[in-house]
């Protein structure tokens, strides 16, 4: 699958990875701290995706399940592995962090299609993380799928939509522009 990143209104090709102490190169979603959640998506050790200039341009996501034992619940992890020839969907990281505004929250909602949220992290403002917050998600969007993105910032930002058309082309626009596109049949 091709990979993309949506951040601050811009859709770019590839997902940025960085060095993490115990895991090597990995995708870090969210942040650590009180009222926050950091999720680390590692690269598969047997079949890692190609990393070019700190970005993964094509990859497949695989979920690893650890069974419940010794009183611990079942745990799931997501890893990125070398891409397959699957062209029916794309892998997108959506980070709703934008403008700090007290009481605002950035989030992602599925509008259409069999969109799958694979991993989720979040970040926040304030010592306890209760002043404002934002989501950072890794999702699979199939052809015909569409999501609603509400960045943090309240009235300072506008809502966006991201979709994959029937030809596999990924695009993003403000919600009002998308509504206009749908109205004129674009």
Mind explaining what this structure looks like?
- The model has no long low-confidence stretch (mean pLDDT 93).
- The chain has one domain (3-184).
- The radius of gyration is 17 Å and the shape is globular.
- Helix content is 5%, strand content 51%.
- It has 1 helix and 17 strands.
- The strands form 4 sheets. A 5-stranded mixed beta sheet has the order 2-1-11-14-13, with no helix packed on it. It has a 5-stranded mixed beta sheet with strand order 4-5-6-10-9, with no helix packed on it.
- Strand 4 and strand 5 (24-30) form a beta hairpin.
- It has 186 residues and is mainly beta.
Largest beta sheet: what is the strand line-up?
2-1-11-14-13
Number of strands: 17
Mean pLDDT over the full residue set: 93
Assembly context of the chains? single chain
Topology of this protein?
Elements: E1 3-7, E2 10-13, E3 15-16, E4 18-20, E5 24-30, E6 38-43, E7 51-52, E8 55-56, E9 60-66, E10 75-81, E11 89-95, E12 107-112, E13 116-125, E14 132-142, E15 146-150, E16 160-164, E17 170-174, H1 175-184
Parallel strand pairs: 1-11, 6-10
Antiparallel strand pairs: 1-2, 3-8, 4-5, 5-6, 7-8, 9-10, 11-14, 12-15, 13-14, 15-16, 16-17
């Amino acid at each position: 699958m091709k990979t993309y990143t949506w951040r601050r209104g811009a859709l770019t090709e590839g997902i940025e990875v960085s060095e993490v102490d115990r895991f090597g190169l990995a995708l870090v979603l969210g942040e650590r701290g009180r009222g926050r959640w950091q999720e680390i998506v590692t690269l598969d050790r047997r079949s890692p995706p190609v990393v070019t200039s700190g970005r993964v341009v094509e990859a497949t996501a695989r979920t690893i399940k650890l069974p419940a034992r010794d009183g611990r619940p079942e745990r799931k992890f997501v890893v990125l592995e070398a891409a397959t020839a699957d062209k029916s969907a794309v892998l997108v990281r959506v980070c709703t962090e934008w403008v700090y505004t007290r009481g605002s929250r950035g989030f992602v909602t599925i509008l259409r299609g069999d969109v799958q949220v694979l991993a989720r992290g979040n970040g926040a403002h304030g010592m306890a993380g209760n002043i404002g917050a934002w989501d950072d998600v890794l999702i699979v969007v199939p052809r015909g799928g569409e999501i609603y993105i509400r960045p943090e910032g309240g009235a300072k930002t506008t809502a966006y939509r991201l979709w994959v058309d029937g030809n596999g082309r990924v695009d993003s626009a403000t919600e009002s522009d998308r509504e206009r596109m749908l109205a004129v049949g674009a």
